[in-house]
Amino acid sequence: MSASAADMVTIGEPGDVRRWCDVRRSDGRRIGFVPTMGYLHQGHLSLVELARQAADDVIVSIFVNPLQFGPSEDLGRYPRDFARDSARCRSAGVGLLFAPTVAQMYPRPIATTVEVPALGEGLCGRDRPGHFAGVCTVVARLFNIVGPCVAVFGQKDYQQLAIVRRMVLDLAFPVDVLAGPIVREADGLAMSSRNAYLTAEQRRAATVLSRALERVQQQAREGPLTSETVQGLVAELVATEPLVRLQYVQMVDAATLAPLDNSTFDGEAVVALAAWVGDTRLIDNVLL
Ligand code: AMP
After folding, report:
1. Which among 156, 175, 178, 182 is the best mutation to test ligand 1's pocket, defined by most ligand atoms within 8 Å of the CB?
2. Which portions of the chain are predicted below pLDDT 50?
3. Which residues pair with 284 in a beta bridge?
4. Would you tell me how many other CB atoms lie within 10 Å of the CB of residue 128?
5. Helix count and strand count (H, E) for the chain
6. Which atom of ligand 1 is nearest to the CA of 191?
7. For 46-86, what is each residue's pLDDT tens digit?
């Protein structure tokens, strides 16, 4: 039986989270875990639903992780609304909301870093040095706090998902990683907490990103695509929106994230992009 909506507890201390999980696991219950930075939207809640289907008790963590923000990035202004997030988790059937302060999460300056350089240096890694090391380090710490679980990540952050999967394999974390598809707004824009930064005009312009990826998908149905075709197609469409500046678009192997330079590849490919819309950096991708 799943915990009823009224049963949700909120915990800040990692040791208390571990005890809560240990008690449930000793009763034979499976823990589902959804790590987030909060300001929850339907994309996050779709992962909670997947976790509920795969496990008996669901934990959501809300932690805006300073380690994964560069010095000129948006750590200070990252959107937060704890009361709304908490209400959303409660009505989604979450059993435990883990919401540590920075001091609770990192009680001492962190001296250990986890990295997956083979997958973390391309794509977003090139534009955000240190970002994925910050992600891996916090996710490794979260996995050790929660213990054995099914952890659910979104395909929205495709590179992050691939890196976490590889970290789990390489370091033998007792974690099964599940992936949830990208949840989009009605006009195609991938849901993101950062969409809250956009003005109405930027919000409208930002739809060019999903439209460009949709165009790529259509072309892929008609025949194999080269990397140059994909880049040309996306760059051309994005250039029609003066408010949007493409940072990169790349077609890569979905498992290794290695760039694909020819059309003979018959495995799964992903086309990933990042773009600036004003001061807001957005990402999106599509699997081919
Ligand atoms: P964040 O709070 O942005 O760190 O995201 C927490 C988790 O939610 C990550 O696994 C993201 O990939 C996932 N996520 C964010 N946006 C979406 C979306 N639109 N659809 C599906 N998953 C998402």
Report:
1. 156
2. 1-3
3. 273
4. 18
5. 11, 9
6. 19
7. 999 999 999 999 999 999 999 999 999 999 999 999 999 99
